[in-house]
């Protein structure tokens, strides 16, 4: 049995949830709030970050790209055409570069800001940095997302999928990031039609359904979040 | 022929130089100053980050962990016992977790601050953020390094090498990070004897020699930098 410690509005965690869905891995998901720095969680992952995967009595597998490689190494070979990591070293490098881009750069410049300001700050006590969103931070994130959408647009216009001819981990990483922002109604979809069409394809996959069912009580999702013809 | 774009005082770049040394890969190294945002460099890696590797007419391989996997996939199988990535999925996950720790967390909390304040700011024009080091930043980095040394000490006290019984990418990542800080005389070696002994072993390897020869004109290395019995 696999257990994954995650938070519903984390790009890296959504990425791992999508991989588990695509690879048909049954998982027990446990919500963790990393800002609480729970002792037993820090013993599993001293970095204090999500996601963390534990398989049976095995050691904790920490971090989204580490989990991606682990699931691909232990399950990918059974997936045939639906394997999310290509076979050739150069194409694998391109998949990994894009996964790093979306989990690192895009998350750091866009998703992390918006989710922290609009969602996490509702839950974090005021004395520890919670409270109203900082409008300067929101403005920066809204400026940054346009550059990223252009880049995704360029990729989807020149390739079938983000990293090449087949759906790969890169598409799941990008869609995981966008989905967090989309919940908050912060994706200017009309900027780029090819990006929108590509996202529609990923969003329609069965692996995406649990993510479209995520809800926060205080913030209902944007009107287009669940709509497959947004 | 392999070309690697790098900067001598970057953890991620030193990590890749060490891998190339260990795997016996002949490389032409090209120094790149990423803060100049050179157009041809951005065309290779739109993220604008180092290191970038190009093999013959192949596509750019961008980022330290992407290069690590690429070199291991294309060369590692010839290395036998000296392969830097273990065979078992769980141990591979531990190597990757620690590589992420040292290139990400340790670099972000310690090395990046010290190198930026003490080295890069000498080269960056004053109007673009160059100038004297910020003493508050130096103080933070000096506090942070003690926690990291303790963690390395715990790892080296409980295992032969950082990730297990054999030298792996994890040791090279940690040593790459420490070497940048050691040049600046900022490693409190006396805090932890097992860490010091482990670093002495890695530092004595032939792959480390080019790194010990790195010099910045304005800043001579600390007295212990080259000394193998520091």
From TrEMBL, chains A, B:
GO terms for biological process: glutathione metabolic process. GO terms for molecular function: glutathione transferase activity. Residues 88-222 form the GST C-terminal domain. Keywords: Transferase. It comes from the Bacteria. Residues 1-79 form the GST N-terminal domain. Homodimer. This is Glutathione S-transferase family protein. It comes from Siculibacillus lacustris.
